[in-house]
Sequence to fold (280 residues):
Amino acid sequence: MNIGEAASQSGLPPKTIRYYEGCGLLDAPARDENGYRRYSSADVHMLRFLQRARGLGFTMADCQELLDLYRDKRRSSADVQAVARRQLAEIDRKIAELRSMRHTLADLIERCHGDERPDCPIIDDLAGIAAPADAMEPRR
Amino acid sequence: MNIGEAASQSGLPPKTIRYYEGCGLLDAPARDENGYRRYSSADVHMLRFLQRARGLGFTMADCQELLDLYRDKRRSSADVQAVARRQLAEIDRKIAELRSMRHTLADLIERCHGDERPDCPIIDDLAGIAAPADAMEPRR
DNA sequence: GATGGGGCTTCCAGTTACTGGAATGTCAAG
DNA sequence: CTTGACATTCCAGTAACTGGAAGCCCCATC
Fold:
């Protein structure tokens, strides 16, 4: 099958498939006489594997590692789990960072009256003028 | 003050300050006879403004908009709020995406025994072999 | 006066994971 | 025979920096 078919079966755009190949993430596939890449269903399995792994946020380096483990029939599941745990920790870090941003931002938005007046706690906070509400001393 | 001092007072590295200037986010500052950038405390205010805005995840384009609003004394707070709401929505989108990844990943990790055996639900899921537990039919 | 260690300048390149576009070649249908 | 959809390669751009090289500038010390 051609790259277009492999693309629609794997969910990866043709450009991305070529890109992964160029990066060495995938072996170069066989070519037809006209120079077109020819993909087997085993190739499509690899592509889908990558598509799912990337969908879970694994970096391309992680994907490389996971593909190597996938191909290694004598792998230990502990090695796979380690890669996944690393990724989980990374996701947790990002979620925590975003939640912290969200907390501050939501507070500022709530305190902004959002009308035609120029007076604005969002700008004030960014300018370092006012402290956010939850950083102020509680009343009594 | 020189760029190093402005950097430590604003929390932005010198490289980043020059980068922002090159992008047009900041006006080029005055220069001393030796060619060094000279920053005023007003300049440092701008830098800190940027540092905080970037810390809340605003893009550089958003920062530009916010700086413009900051400088516009006749702005309406509604305009500022609109930028912030956009950013909040973006953050929520990212959090949702990460949480979905986290959900799947945590489930896979939990189901992987993580020992020396090659058998691994993480690999199986990526390869499209097994369905995750929460996608399976509940028992009875 | 030479030297050494910062800090400052510029510019170029690399990062991540693609994506868009140009120029060109191939194939099947009408 | 032409049109349109596919395929190929290569170059460039994205976001927001960051690292490094090559070269001034300034101050202190020997």
Remarks:
- Chain B touches chain A through 52 residues (CB under 8 Å).
